[in-house]
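Example (one chain per record):
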Amino acid sequence: MSYRNTSAKDAPLYGAPKPAKKQKSSREINSSNTLAFTSQLESLINSGTNTSSRSTTTSSRPRAKKEDIFASHNRNVKKRAARDLEDDSPAFDQKHSTSSEALDSSAWHRSKRKMEEKARLYAAMKRGDVGDENDTHLVDFDRKWADQQNKQLSDQSSPEDESDSDKEMVEWEDEFGRTRTGTAAQRAREQRLAQLGSEAAMRSRPDMPTNLIVGDTVQASAFNPDEPVAQQMADLAAKRDKSLTPPPDTHFDSSKEIRQKGVGFMQFSHDDQERKRQFENLEMERAETERVRAEREKRLKDRKDEIEKRRNAIRQKQGKKQADDFLTGLSKELGAQPAKEEDAAVKENTEDS
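Predicted structure:
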């Protein structure tokens, strides 16, 4: 086990041997010393009795005893103390409030700075960086830490649980590179203490900053030329969003316009239910109009088809009549030509004869 440079009061803490106390030199007691002591004691007793008898004879009238300033109390102090001990004493009433005056920023920063200084001092005292030789801080962190470690070690290991292997003498190297000799239990205890000390030192260190830049880095976001434009757009959006977004539903009001309205113009109601009913009526009228228009167009189409059929029938009849007339005329022409030929032949025969 290593011994650190410690003060006299911390010596038992780290296992250092206590300095040997100086023994008082004892005097030899002999008969001459005892006789001198008894004679001196008798003279002192006699002188004391003489002075007491003399004072009683001379002071016949008793004097008024002077009040002691430390024994006397303030006026009505006992009444106030008795009132404070009562259960319903206002001294023990806790006053809670949900609202208080705003704290001054300077006072807040001052309190914060003092608390940070106290926290740093407390961490330094826990690490052992601050010496307290004169008991200025009234806190012995070394003693607290040692008591806590001893309590943990005593809870973890008991004399009954130690085996023969823990009592074997072994050698190990401590944190300072020195070769130590002791039992296996002592080696394990020293290793645990060293590990706990290193963990406490790591916990007391500040955390590594997260935004630390290591190596060559191009800070592209250090200057953003579009930032003023984005800020202006954000300001405009904030001004716009002050009103209701989206705006409330409003309907067209023809009474606010001065213009000529057409024949088919219609002013709808501002009431949503009435407006919906008017729209439904218009849809029904539109559907009825389209139905009537479709029926009329269908009738017109059917009539046109009928007329076209009649025209085709008339054309067919006219064509058939013309064909019949042509055939009749042709047949007549063909029947007249053979009769003429027969007459001519008869006439020639008669002439020849």
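Caption: Residues 295 and 301 are 10 Å apart (CA to CA).
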